[in-house]
Amino acid sequence: MKQEMMTIVDQVQLAPRIFQMVLTGELVSYMEKPGQFLHISVPRTDLLLRRPISLNEINHKQRTCAIIYRVEGAGTQAFSQMQAGEQLDVLGPLGNGFDSTFLTPGQTAFIVGGGIGIPPMYELSRQLKANGVNVTHFLGYASKEVAYFQEEFQSLGPTYFATDDGSYGTKGTVATLLTTAIKQEQPQAVYACGANGMLKAVAELFPSHPNVFLSMEERMACGIGACYACVCPKKGDKIGSKNVKVCDEGPIFLANEVIL
Predict the structure, then answer these.
(1) What are phi and psi of 249, to 5 degrees?
(2) Are residues 193 and 116 in the same domain?
(3) For residue 37, how many C-alpha atoms fall within 13 Å in the half-sphere facing its CB?
(4) Exposure pattern of 15-36 as b/e (b: 16+ CB <10 Å)?
């Protein structure tokens, strides 16, 4: 874990309330595993807590990284108003990231993302494809209006879309897409990031699969495992003594490890 004042290279709006920010700095050299996140300080004295935002893309050659976030409150609103050349106090990379070391070239991974849980799945897919793994994407949005990054995923492998209102792709959720897909193919690994309801649906579709990895979303305070503000219960823990901390023990867990 390192801390640096990283410089904003670029920022673009991808959809209503959704922005992609590109940062540069020495910290990029420590970024390796997709699924890790940055803990970013809001440049306002009245907002003390950092905001955890997943890495969307890592580019060691250009020494840049990208994050994608949705404006939800005052902190992310402040981020959205910043411009190239300004700096942000960044702590990271944090978290354990997705494990793909067991996959071999020619095997298949299902990449599942919902809403603002989609960004970290892009870097994961890029790295898997570079290692010869076949990637199939299942992405869910609320509507066509808030859909983003479709072409980027399509450039890496087959990509299927679902929207709650049916305005883009299949009407339904990513679970709707997966229910059809698993009748035709069983992947060697499943990776998912999104709201808890989506993660639970994914876990239920692969009840005995040994390699279903879920990226948990929890509110965090410290981001380094000290405050216990982001705990999640483990399966088989009847007395609540084995909670895991999403920030430093996660945010990635095997589906058979945690209770959603």
Answers:
(1) -90, -20
(2) yes
(3) 28
(4) beebbbbbbbbebbeebebbbb
DSSP 59-117: ETTTTEEEEEEE--SHHHHHHHT--TT-EEEEEEEES-----TT--TT-EEEEEEEGGG
Q: Among residues 94, 119, 149, which one ends one of the domains?
A: 94
Which of 59, 94, 129 is the last residue before a domain boundary? 94
Same-domain check for residues 139 and 90: no
Our count of domains for the chain comes to 2
Q: For residues 136 and 22, what is the distance between their CA atoms, to the nearest angstrom?
A: 26
Residue 249 has pLDDT above 90, yes or no: no
Assess if residue 74 is contained within a domain. Answer: yes
What pLDDT band is residue 1 in, cutting at 50, 70 and 90? Answer: confident
Residue 32, domain extent: 2-94
CATH of the domain at 155: 3.40.50.80
Position 251 scores a pLDDT of 77
**Which residues on neighbouring strands pair with residue 59, listed in sequence order?**
64
- pLDDT tens track for 196-241: 999 999 999 999 999 999 997 644 444 444 444 444 555 554 445 4
Specify which residues 92 forms β-bridges with: 2
- Residues 115, 189, single domain; the answer is yes
- Distance CA(65)–CA(29), nearest Å, equals 10
**Omega before 207 within 30 of 0, i.e. cis:** no
How many angstroms separate the CA atoms of 42 and 62, rounded?
25
